């Protein structure tokens, strides 16, 4: 028996992860499958995702039934969302002059993830959320972290997006 539980809710082809940030923004586009990939993320070859294709280093040892299949991993995470939110908000912080403690906390949260809760990347909009940018798939991934200052003003090296994007 398989026990599947909904861990995120779908809202018109977008997913809001349990910590309240838009998710599914940077999914890869596959060469030969995606006719009009949005700018930004690198295109990936099908053999990176499909078993048994050219470039699959284990193709010779895979069973026949796995040809052109892929793998899916489920990970069960216990996330104490309200407790985490409380931890981040107590005490509110002054991160920059001119920002309220609440805005400072929101900016700190965005720097931890690399995106604002709307999905807008802080590499493009480092000081405030831009929901219009987030809603535009032609723009919300069109960045490369190039030209980043040594002080990581726009997107810290430890941000989630830096660890998962390339």
UniProtKB/TrEMBL annotation:
Keywords: Heme, Iron, Metal-binding, Oxidoreductase, Peroxidase. InterPro entries: Dimeric_a/b-barrel (IPR011008), Dyp_peroxidase (IPR006314). Its cofactor is heme b. SUPFAM superfamilies: Dimeric alpha+beta barrel (SSF54909). GO terms for molecular function: heme binding; metal ion binding; peroxidase activity. Residues 120-149 are annotated as: Disordered. GO terms for cellular component: cytosol. This is Uncharacterized protein. The lineage of its organism: Eukaryota, Fungi, Dikarya, Basidiomycota, Agaricomycotina.
């Amino acid at each position: 028996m398989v026990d599947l539980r909904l861990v995120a809710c779908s809202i018109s082809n977008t997913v809001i992860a349990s910590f309240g940030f838009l998710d599914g923004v940077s999914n890869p586009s596959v060469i030969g499958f995606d006719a009009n990939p949005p700018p930004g993320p690198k295109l990936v070859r099908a053999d990176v995702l499909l078993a048994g294709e050219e470039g699959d280093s284990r193709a010779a040892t895979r069973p026949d039934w796995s040809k052109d299949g892929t793998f899916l991993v489920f990970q069960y995470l216990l996330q104490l969302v309200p407790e985490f939110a409380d931890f981040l908000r107590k005490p509110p912080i002054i991160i920059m002059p001119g920002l309220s403690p609440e805005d400072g906390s929101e900016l700190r949260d965005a720097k931890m993830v690399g995106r604002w809760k709307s999905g807008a990347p802080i590499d493009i909009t480092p000081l405030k959320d831009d929901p219009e940018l987030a809603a535009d798939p032609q723009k919300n991934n069109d960045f490369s972290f190039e030209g980043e200052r040594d002080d990581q003003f726009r997107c810290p090296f430890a941000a989630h997006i830096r660890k998962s994007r390339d």
